[in-house]
Each structure stands twice: as C-alpha cells, then as structure tokens.
C-alpha cells in the first residue's frame, strides 16, 4: 500500500560488493578514457553500441528528467555537411591565433569525422515534461549538465568494450541542428565519433603533441 503522500513503502536490496580488484580496474578505466581522434573504419557491433547507449540511460539527471536524445547520423550527405561545418569552424579557430600557434593548431588532429564508423549527436530536450521541472528552477542549466553525465557514462561503457570516443566541439551547433532536422527545442550538447582506435595512448593527445601541459589545479581540493 502507499504511504503518506502517496509514496509506496520502500523496498531495499543489498548492493553488490565491489572489491579492491574491481576498484583498481575502474581506476584504470578512468585513466584510459581518452578523447580519440584516430579511428579504424571497421563497423561497430550493433549490440555493443546498444549496450553503451543503455549505460548512458543509467546516468543521473536533474529531477530524473532524462533529457538526452541521441541521434545516430548515418546519412552520408548529413555526415558530410557536419564535416564541412567542422572545417569552417576549424579554419576560423586557427585564424584566431598568432602565426606560430596557428601553425601548431593546424598540425593537430582534432576530429575523426571522416574515419569514424559511428556518429552520435547528443541533444538536450529542453521542452521535456519528464520530472515536472523538479530541481532546475534556480539552475535550468542542470538539464544540459544531465546530458553531459549521460555522455560520460556512454564514454566509459564504450572504453570498457574497446571502443574509442571523440567529442567534436569545433562545430556550429545551429548548423548541426539544422542538418540533422531535429525538433527546435532540442539543443546540441555533444557530437561524438565512435569506433575502434587506430592507436592507444594513456596520455591526452594535446599534451602528447605539445599543445599544453597538464594543469594540476583540477586535482586540488579547495577548502572553505
């Protein structure tokens, strides 16, 4: 029977025990979660891809809204149009640097759009009624943050299955939204390339190619 306020009586279940070997493997998974730009063209197994999407759907979301909407981009014309958007935005970004830095920028590989067998666009459904607005009245951006959480869950699930993921942010979001012909209240959060990596590295590519050094501040804990 329902309790006070219409709530059902809670049912508890013993959680699984995660031993030291599991947590060590989990730490290794986090360490090897890398932004991949160099893909093999081999197709991905459909069941494996669906398992990664199922993991994404287990992500936390504000008010249990689950606002993520994943679009697989398979049509060659649409994929080509997205790649063209990247090329335009990438050229504009290079032009914003001085000559030496621009040359370095142009030498970087910043996307795998032409090689990756799977393109996934992750949108936030800003008009979703699921959750009835719970938890986001003062911070509406948490709806989009929820999509980012789903992307991270998908990313880790993919990495655990040997699949690489690359997040392409050098795009015009309005152009991509038009190219993919999605509802106007869907906002682009991430455009992802998925595929088997050509090579494996434990360090970030931008550090390996000298674009930047690791910033230790992100690992610090600030006390107040």
From TrEMBL:
- Cited InterPro entries: BluB, Nitroreductase, Nitroreductase-like, Nitroreductase/BluB
Please give the residue ranges the record annotates as the region Disordered: 202-224
Name assigned to this protein:
5,6-dimethylbenzimidazole synthase
| Record key words, sorted | Oxidoreductase
Under Enzyme Commission nomenclature, its number is 1.13.11.79
- Catalytic class of the enzyme: oxidoreductase
Ion transport found in the keyword field: no
- The UniProt gene name for this protein comes to bluB
One of the entry's Gene Ontology molecular-function terms is: 5,6-dimethylbenzimidazole synthase activity
The organism that produces this protein has a lineage beginning with: Bacteria, Pseudomonadati, Pseudomonadota, Alphaproteobacteria, Hyphomicrobiales
What species is this protein from? Answer: Methylobacterium komagatae
Residue stretches making up the Nitroreductase domain: 31-195
């Amino acid at each position: 029977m329902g309790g006070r306020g219409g709530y059902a009586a809670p049912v508890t279940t013993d959680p699984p025990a995660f031993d030291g070997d599991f947590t060590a493997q989990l730490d290794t998974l986090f360490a090897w979660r890398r932004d991949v730009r160099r893909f093999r063209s081999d197709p991905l197994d459909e069941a494996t891809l669906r398992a990664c999407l199922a993991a994404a759907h287990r992500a936390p979301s504000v008010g249990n809204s689950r606002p993520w909407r994943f679009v697989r981009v398979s049509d060659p014309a649409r994929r080509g149009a997205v790649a063209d958007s990247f090329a335009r935005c990438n050229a504009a970004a290079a032009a914003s640097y001085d000559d030496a830095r621009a040359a370095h920028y142009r030498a970087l590989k910043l996307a795998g759009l032409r090689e990756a067998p799977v393109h996934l666009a992750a949108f936030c459904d800003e008009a979703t009624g699921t959750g009835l607005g719970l938890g986001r009245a003062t911070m509406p951006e948490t709806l989009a943050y929820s999509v980012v959480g789903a992307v991270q869950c998908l990313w880790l699930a993919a990495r655990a299955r040997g699949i690489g993921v690359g997040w392409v942010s050098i795009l015009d979001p309005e152009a991509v939204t038009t190219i993919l012909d999605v509802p106007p209240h869907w906002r682009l959060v991430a455009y992802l390339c998925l595929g088997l990596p050509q090579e494996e590295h434990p360090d970030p590519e931008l550090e390996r190619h000298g674009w930047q050094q690791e910033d230790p501040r992100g690992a610090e804990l600030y006390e107040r």
